[in-house]
Amino acid sequence: MTKMITLRVDQSFLADLKRGYPLILKEAVVNTDMLREEGELIRLVDRANRYLATGYYGNQNKGIGWVLTTKEHEEIDGAFFKTKLKTALDHRADFFEDSQTTAFRVFNGEGDGIGGLTIDYFDGYYMVSWYSDGIYSFKQYIYDALAELVEFKAIYEKKRFDTKGQYIEQDDFVMGEPGDFPIIIKENGMNFAVNLNDGAMTGIFLDQRDVRRTIRDYYAEDTNMLNTFSYTGAFSVAAALGGAKETTSVDLAKRSLAKTIEQFSVNGIDYEAQNIKVMDVFDYFKYAVRHNMKYDLVVLDPPSFARSKKMTFSTAKDYPKLLMDAISITEKNGIIVASTNNASFGMKKFKTFIDKAFKDSNTRYKIVEQSSLPKDFRANRDFPEFNYLKVVFIKKLNK
Ligand code: SAH
């Protein structure tokens, strides 16, 4: 059995822990100096030495590990991981049956009972992401369980923790028959090219599935659409398929051009009829204002933090400014889709950013739709930090 370290929880964190807060925060534990090696099991006790929970040691952002069970005598072994995985797979039964959507999340970290581990499904391929050395030390259990429970073409993995301060470029293949990438997955009937063995990202962010569908089905028709921080242009594809007259995709990364052309092409859309700009979004706003360009539909989906040559952008600080730029180039009655995946603030705070931006622009608005994580991204709704995605559709009412 793996070694077990007993850690005492600070009184002020007891209540949250008892309510099911799964992350073991560094400051929640009194004697962290006991910890030696990531992957060792942690027995959490209160100051009277009463048992609270069992977890594992793995460094990840603010946490030193995750709670795995609150049953004192539950063994953390192969059977434990298999049960968690089986339950998670059962929750996605509808997805496995849906021929129009062939990519989704099958295991969502703490939402499925094991923080630090996610597993995504891409049309027969599985992508396992490991977020700490600690959880990675259990990999044999998890791969054995996965291989027993599902049929797969191949399994790939990404180690999203750093050994020496950077993402390790690696061959991500684990087992099975290596794929011929890109593969084409389906999402509500749309096609997306995906590559599981090409750096940190796959080409599609699965957590925005519902938003892409909403854009295609309800907001795109006859619009002139602007997609900022567009990455591979997935929102532009959704808009074009929903009948947008024209789309413009803007991203700083050089690779975004070829990737966006690819996403249009696999959907039979003539990419030459669309605009794809490799440039800084903030420069594009200035350019659009100078040329009096306006859009009916503007998507804002920035990374939580971004650094370019000229500036740093943080959603927690700069979102109102970003919105003001967007407001200035949106038509009257146009829609702004404001999205953020920043876990450090919730929906309420996000709406104060929206309100501030419209007030400072002397413009009236109406929130017409909002959404968060899709069903396959299971999350504990009691703690908003794990329910990180916030998307608000805002109608600009005047000017
Ligand atoms: N909206 C995308 C995902 C965005 S990921 C989707 O739905 O798939 C964030 C993207 O922002 C990255 O592709 C990155 O290259 C881009 N980015 C970061 N800073 C930028 C800036 N200042 N201007 C333009 N793009 C930027």
Automatic annotation (TrEMBL):
GO terms for biological process: methylation. SUPFAM superfamilies: PUA domain-like, S-adenosyl-L-methionine-dependent methyltransferases. The keyword Transmembrane does not apply. GO terms for molecular function: methyltransferase activity; RNA binding. Residues 8-69 form the RlmI-like PUA domain. It comes from the Bacteria. InterPro entries: PUA-like_sf, PUA_sf, RlmI-like_PUA, SAM-dep_methyl-trfase, SAM-dependent_MTases_sf. Keywords: Methyltransferase, S-adenosyl-L-methionine, Transferase. This is Methyltransferase. The keyword Methyltransferase applies. Residues 172-348 form the S-adenosylmethionine-dependent methyltransferase domain.
